[in-house]
C-alpha cells in the first residue's frame, strides 16, 4: 500500500513537472510571438521612414548641391542604421542650413524627415509638431518668394499631416498668389479638389 502511494506520488510529481514545463514553454512561445510582432512593427515603421526620407533626400537638379541636401542624406543613412539620435542631429543641421539658405524646399524636406524619424522612434506627436513648424516656415517662405509651387507643396504636406486648418490657409495663400493667372488658378483648384477627395475618403473611414 505504501509502495502504491509512493508510485502515485512519483507519477503525480511527473505530471506536475510536465504541466509546469508546458506552461513555461507556452509562456516562452507567447513572449517570442510578442517580440516578433513588435520587431515586425518596428521594421515596418523603419521601412516607411526610410522611404519618406529617400523621397526627400533625392533633390531635383535645381536643389542639388544646396547646403541642406547633404544633411538630409546623412539623416537617411543614420536612420538606415536605426540610429535615431544621429538622424535627429542631421535633420537639425538640415533645418539650420535651409533657414540660412532661405529655402522653402529644404524646410519641406526637414518636415518630411521629422515625420520619418517619428515613425521609427515611436514619438509621433513630438515629430509631427516639429514637422508642422517646418512646414509652416516653408509655407510663409514660399509666399514671401512668390512661389506657388512651394505654397501648394506645403499645403499638401499639411494635408498629409492631417492639419486641415493649415491646409486651408495654404489654399487661400495659393489662390491669392495665382490671382489672375488662369493656369495657376487651375493648379490651385486641382490641389483643392484632390485634398477634398482625400479628406472625404478619410471621413468615410471614420
- Sheet/helix structural class: mainly alpha
Number of helices: 8
H and E order:
HHHHHHHH
What's the shape?
A: globular
Beta strand %: under 5%
Distance between the termini: 71 Å
Q: How many whole angstroms does the radius of gyration measure?
A: 27 Å
Helix content estimate: over 70%
Mean pLDDT across all amino acids: 77
Which stretches are low in confidence, meaning pLDDT under 50 for 5 or more residues running? Answer: 17-26, 28-43, 56-61
**What is the strand tally?**
0
Largest sheet: none
Structure description:
This protein is mostly helical and 206 residues long. Helix content is 87%, strand content 0%. The chain is built from eight helices and no strands. The chain has helices at 2-57, 67-80, 84-100, 104-121, 124-144, 148-161, 164-178, 182-205. Helix 4 packs parallel to helix 6 (148-161). The longest helix is centred in the N-terminal third of the chain and has 56 residues, at 2-57. Mean pLDDT is 77; it is low at 17-26, 28-43 and 56-61.
Structural features:
single chain; 206 residues; mainly alpha; 8 helices; 0% strand
Summarize the structure.
By secondary structure, this protein is mainly α. The chain has 8 helices and no strands. The model is unreliable at 17-26, 28-43 and 56-61 (pLDDT under 50).
How would the blueprint of this fold be written?
Layout: H1 2-57, H2 67-80, H3 84-100, H4 104-121, H5 124-144, H6 148-161, H7 164-178, H8 182-205
Helix pairs in contact: 1-2, 1-4, 2-3, 2-4, 3-4, 4-5, 4-6, 5-6, 6-7, 6-8, 7-8
Amino acid at each position: 500500500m505504501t509502495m502504491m502511494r509512493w508510485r502515485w506520488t512519483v507519477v503525480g510529481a511527473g505530471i506536475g513537472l510536465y504541466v509546469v514545463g508546458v506552461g513555461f514553454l507556452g509562456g516562452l512561445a507567447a513572449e517570442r510571438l510578442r517580440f516578433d510582432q513588435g520587431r515586425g512593427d518596428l521594421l515596418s515603421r523603419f521601412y516607411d521612414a526610410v522611404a519618406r526620407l529617400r523621397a526627400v533626400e533625392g533633390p531635383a537638379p535645381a536643389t542639388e548641391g544646396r547646403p541642406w541636401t547633404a544633411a538630409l542624406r546623412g539623416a537617411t543613412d543614420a536612420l538606415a542604421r536605426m540610429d535615431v539620435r544621429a538622424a535627429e542631429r542631421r535633420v537639425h543641421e538640415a533645418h539650420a542650413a535651409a533657414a540660412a539658405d532661405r529655402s522653402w524646399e529644404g524646410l519641406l524636406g526637414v518636415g518630411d524627415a521629422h515625420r520619418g524619424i517619428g515613425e521609427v522612434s515611436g514619438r509621433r506627436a513630438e515629430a509631427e509638431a516639429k514637422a508642422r513648424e517646418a512646414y509652416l516656415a516653408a509655407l510663409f517662405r514660399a509666399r514671401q518668394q512668390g512661389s506657388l509651387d512651394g505654397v501648394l507643396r506645403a499645403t499638401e504636406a499639411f494635408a498629409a499631416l492631417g492639419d486641415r486648418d493649415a491646409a486651408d490657409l495654404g489654399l487661400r495663400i495659393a489662390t491669392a498668389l495665382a490671382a489672375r493667372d488662369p493656369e495657376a488658378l487651375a493648379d490651385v483648384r486641382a490641389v483643392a479638389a484632390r485634398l477634398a477627395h482625400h479628406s472625404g475618403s478619410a471621413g468615410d473611414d471614420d
